[in-house]
Amino acid sequence: MSLPVVEGVVVIALSALLVWGIRFLGLVFGEKLPRTGFFKRGMDALPGAIFAALVFPGIVGAGIPGGVAAGVIFIATRKTGNVLLALFLGVGTVALLRGAGL
Amino acid sequence: MRGEFFRGARAAIPVSLGIVAYALVFGVLVAGKGIGIGTLAFMNLAVFSGSAQFVLVGMWQGGVSAWQMALAAAVVNVRYFLLTAAVAPMMEPYGWLGRAWRVHFVTDENWAVTMAENRRSPVGANFLLGGGVLVMAAWSLGTLAGHGLGLAIPHPERFGMDFAFTAIFTALAVTMWRGKSDILPWVVSAGVALLASRSLPGAWYVLLGGLAGAFTAAVKKGEPA
Hints:
The complex is a heterodimer. By secondary structure, chain A is mainly alpha-helical. Chain A has four helices and no strands. In chain A, helix 2 packs across helix 3 (63-80) and helix 3 packs antiparallel against helix 4. Chain B is 72% helix and 0% strand. The longest helix of chain B has 25 residues, at 125-149. The interface between A and B is large, with 79 and 105 residues.
């Protein structure tokens, strides 16, 4: 069963409004924060902290292949600076280790 | 200005390739739910968030109010609050209207690419926008192709495809590393995120982990302000 078209459009419009609202409120919040001291240190560290939060549960969830792949990605990125190459090596490592039964 | 837009788009090519693969799978799911291609295209442009769209399509069978569906879609995107807070300085040259539409183009992927580049040499909102437009194109083309082809990839995890996003974000994280001062905030962020991912639904773990890491850096003594 699927939603009727009109209802679907209403759902999408409402969702779009709320998702945009979050994006916009974040921007307003970021504008209001002082750019010195405590808040500057926090905001400067925020992008890296978000990255750590984004990737770590995914690496742990992928088990041993995920951990090994993370190591491969780390070395590939540090040595070559090529993100696309690191992506292929990382995904390839996971596929290979899973194929080997890990 | 235009140069920066295209530089942003070019930098987002690797992440966009990952997005196409993910989008194909989503397009197949959408077709399976009986959602029309026009509705899908509208959703891609208006909501423009993979995680929110997955949630919406998952609830599409009816029996749930429009508000509940929209709220569920919004909740999985609470992390955007922090992403856009971090790009606020880039948006300063623009008026509120200019910021209001540009902020729609912030996604995990082009945000990540922009932040990584910004660490090397400062970039502006047009770099972010260029990446966002390419991501939107990749997402739209991928989902529409998946919908049209109706292909199903059997066991995508066998090819490690489920790891693609973690892989690319890990690579980008490596480029973001600022040195020893990042160790403690990153460990705190990763630890909180892991705990939250196991105890809370949706993507709250990104928000909580990110906040915990940033707070740790903010209270650390001896850091240059």
